[in-house]
Write a structure and sequence with these properties.
Length: 371
């Protein structure tokens, strides 16, 4: 029997139209979204302002929750990772980042959530755990939104900022991403400001332009991780389809439609992309589109041989950007002890349950120091 659609992925406009077909008033639809998003009920029986007949009809046609929290790692005052079991038995991860952790060079306001958009990932970035077991499926808008609902319940606090930089490539799940953003942003929905949401992409150039044309004033972050095509081709296969010239043409288009500054995410990997030649190229890339740079020392992933550079080498890389006047943050993030790199907990759980076979460790690619 196919799963019922979740109300967490439904819009007020859609519910109003459905209720009109059922002979119900617009007011009833507004009551339902209030119960779902403001009051966060988990049972239709709890919607006490609705008639019993309407509650029963809703239960026959919709669901309210499609996932459950399987594991929580970390602690309240540090990064916490939630492993969520989906209705089909697969797993995704979402990460709570407390106010004490800086993000993109700014202090996070109270609580930030890193959200997944896919089960696994097809983009096969060579340093990332999310794609080790391959791509399974896109998440629905409701599953994206429910990560916020589940995380707020665990945190007993409101999530103020959303970053779409968990498992998967958000722009490869474009329609569901845009719908989720609508629900998260709406006054009748989760009510998170558009400027408090950041979409992170590995560089799907056509979708960057499409997002610029239709999305509200959300922020954009680019998982760059290499300042030359040579480096990006080896560690990020997406670059072979959308090389840096095409990517930056799309970023220029984005800048023409947005006032917010772009952010470049740059994971520092020892002897791969941490050379000072890459730092100098990164200066040029950042200046070209007036981007901030978020430097993140590599988070070790079981099964991969990559290593994080020494702190001295991290500092030397940052110095090149800083001395050139590029706004750059070196984020030595917490969470290294909780398998914080996206996809690790999911990979471990699905392997133990026999859902997937343990992936073969990948060979490390060395570009050279370039210093």
């Amino acid at each position: 029997m196919p799963a019922l659609p979740s109300l967490l992925g439904s819009t007020l406009e859609e519910l109003t139209a459905t209720f009109a077909e059922w002979g119900e008033s617009k007011f009833r639809a507004k009551q339902v979204v209030d119960w779902v998003f403001a009051k966060r009920v988990e049972s239709f029986e709890d919607m006490t302002t609705l008639s019993k007949a309407l509650r029963e009809k809703l239960a026959e046609n919709y669901s309210l929750r499609t996932m459950r929290v399987s594991t929580v790692t970390g602690s309240e005052d540090t990064t916490r990772k939630l492993l969520l079991r989906l209705e089909d038995g697969r797993f995704v991860e979402t990460v709570l980042i407390p106010a004490s952790t800086s993000l993109y060079g700014e202090r996070a306001d109270r609580l930030t959530l890193c959200v997944s958009s896919q089960v696994g990932c097809a983009y096969d970035c060579k340093f990332c755990a999310s794609g080790l077991a391959g791509f399974t499926r896109n998440l629905t808008a409701a599953e994206i939104v429910e990560q916020v609902v589940q995380a707020e319940k665990v945190a007993a606090d409101r999530v103020d900022n959303i970053v779409f930089m968990g498992m998967g490539e958000p722009l490869a799940n474009f329609s569901q991403l845009v719908r989720a953003i609508e629900v998260l942003n709406a006054d009748w929905g989760i009510r998170i400001g558009a400027r408090r949401m950041t979409v992170s992409t590995s560089g799907v150039a056509p979708q960057i332009k499409k997002l610029a044309d239709i999305a509200p004033q959300i922020r954009l972050a680019i998982s760059l991780h290499g300042a030359s095509d040579e480096v990006r081709d080896l560690i990020m296969p997406v670059n072979r389809k959308y090389p840096l010239a095409e990517l930056f043409e799309a970023l220029t288009y984005w800048k023409q439609h947005r006032k917010q500054r772009l952010t470049f995410e740059y994971i520092l990997i020892e002897d791969v992309n941490d050379g000072l030649d890459q730092a100098r190229l990164l200066v040029k890339r950042a200046r070209a589109v007036d981007a901030k740079v978020n430097l993140i020392p590599y988070n070790t992933v079981d099964g991969l041989e990559w290593k994080r550079p020494s702190e001295a080498r991290q500092d030397a890389f940052w110095d090149v950007l800083n001395q050139a006047g590029v706004q750059a943050t070196l984020r030595r993030e917490k969470g290294h002890d909780i398998a914080a790199a996206c996809g690790q907990l999911r990979l471990k759980q699905e392997t133990e349950l026999g859902i997937i076979e343990s992936p073969i460790p990948q060979k490390r690619i060395t570009i050279g120091s370039g210093s």
